[in-house]
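We now fix the convention by which a protein and its fold are recorded. These numbers are not coordinates but entries in a learned vocabulary of local backbone shapes. A record is reproduced here so that you can trace the correspondence yourselves:
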Amino acid sequence: MFKAAARNKEGGANVIALLLARYGASVTITEDIYKAAAGNEESSKKIMALLLARPGAGLINTEKVVIVNYQVACLNLEPFSILKAHRPPN
């Protein structure tokens, strides 16, 4: 459900917000959900911000997620800056 919402270019951010309000911290945000959000050309920044702003949000920073974000950043869609802001301390 979250993955489909994260891919939705027109209303994805609104659906993600509703799902997070309903299910909150009980939902595990997987790599596939982050990749779907990062690949959303219209709402990636807003969706990533919603996913990362929830209490207890853990960033799944795998190679695939970083690559998708880099590709999207090359298109000037800005989700990479969100990942940088939420990276764990060294």
User: Anything to note?
Assistant: The radius of gyration is 12 Å. Residues 35 and 64 are 8 Å apart (CA to CA). Residues 12-23 form the longest helix (12 residues).
